[in-house]
Amino acid sequence: xxxxxRASGQGPPPFEPPVEILSSxxxxxxxxxxxxxxxxxxxxxxxxLKAIQSTSSKLSTATSPIQQRxxxxxxxxxxxxxxxxxxxxxxxxxxPAFGHLTLKELAKEINASEEFIFRLVxxxxxxxxxxxxxPPPNHxxxxxxxxxxxxxxxxxxxPAAKASFxxxxxxxxxxHLSSAPGYYHxxxxxxxxxxxxxPFTFAHGAQDEGFFDLLVKDENKFKLFxxxxxxxxxxxxxxxxxxxxFDKLVSNxxxxxxxxxxxxxxxxxxxxxxxxxHMKGKLVLEDLKAVLDGGVIVSEDVKLQTYDFFKEVQPIKxxxxxxxxxxHDWPDEACLQILSNLAPAMRGHPHSKLLICELVLPDQYPxxxxxxRDIMMLFIGGQERNLFQWHxxxxxxxxxxxxxxxxxxxxxxxxxAVLDE
Length: 421
Hints:
This protein has three domains: 13-64; 68-155, Winged helix-like DNA-binding domain superfamily/Winged helix DNA-binding domain (Arc Repressor Mutant, subunit A); 224-419, Rossmann fold, CATH 3.40.50. The chain is globular and about 75 Å long. The chain contains 18 helices and twelve strands. The chain is an alpha/beta fold. This is S-adenosyl-L-methionine-dependent methyltransferase.
C-alpha cells in the first residue's frame, strides 16, 4: 500500500483482470488442446503441450494479483527447504507405493512430531508434490488427513534426486546466496572470464582454483556432485535413444564406435547400450582417474580410459565423440581448449562425428526453468547456450554443425558436428 493509500485509509483497487484477456487466453488453450488431440507425431504433441503450458502460465499470471505473485516469489525458496527436510526424514519412502497413509501413521512411521509433519505436508500438498486429502469441514485440520504419492514425490524417492537436492543445498546454494552480490560488486557485473575466479570460488575464499578444483579436494562433496549428475542422465536420456541413431555410427579402424568424454559413471553409455543392444563397435568411457576410481556402472566390455580433456590431446583417433553436459560447465575460452584437444583426433577422418548432448536454449522466449539453469551455471563459470551461441562457439573451434536432433524439446538436444575441413 502506498503512503497516499495509507493516508487516505484506502487499499489497492479491486483486482479485476479484463474479461477479454482471459477469454483470449482460454481460447488459445483450447486451440492448443485441439492441436494436441489431432497430433500424429511426437514432435507435434510436444509442440502442442508446450503451447498449453505456456498459455496456462500466462492465464495463471493474469488471474493472480501482483501481491500474491510477489509473496509466491518470496516463498519459493522455502518450498525447496521443505522438500529438503522431507528427504532427510525419508518422508516420501514412508508413503505406500499405492494407496494412502494418514498423517498420524506417517508421523509414527518416520518418528517425528505429528504437528511438525502436518506443517510440512501442508506445504507439499499446496505445491502438488504430495496428494493431500483434507477431512470434512469442522474437523481439526490434521484429523484423518490422507496422503498419497504424485509423480513428483515418486521421483524424489530416487537416490539421484536426493543427491541433486543435497548438491544444491550443501554445495551450490550456500555460496551463491551469501556471496554472489559481493563478487559482482568487486569484479563488475559481467560473466566470469577467469575459471579461477567465479562466484563459487570467491565465496570459499579460494584463489587460483576453479569450481572443480575445489570439488575434487573434498571426497564427500565430489561424490555427491557426481551422484547428483546421475539424475540429469536419468531425466535427459529417455528420449535420446530415439533422437539419434547411435547404432549407425561408423567405427574407427580399431573398432571403436563411440567415446564418451567426461562420462562420469557411464550412465549415458549404459543407456545407449540398453537402447541399442545390438550396436556394433566398442565403447570407451573417459574421465579423470578420481571419477573412474569412484566406481562405474557400465558393463565390463566398455573400456575405461583415464583422460583430462584440458591437458591431453584425445588419444583415440578417428572415432565418434560424445560430450554430455560438459561444455555448459565452462566459459567459451575453456570450451575452445577442450575442442582443440579433440580436433586432431578427428582430422582426416570424414566419418568422425562430435555429438554434444546439451540444453539448447530457444533464441526467444525461453521457458523459465531453462534460463534459471543458465544462472546456476553462471555462478560456477559455465553457461547454457542458444543455437546462435552454439554455432559461434563451434565455428571458432573449427567445427560446423550439421544437425540438431531434438531442438525445442523439454530435455537436452544432440548437436551433431564435424570438423570443417
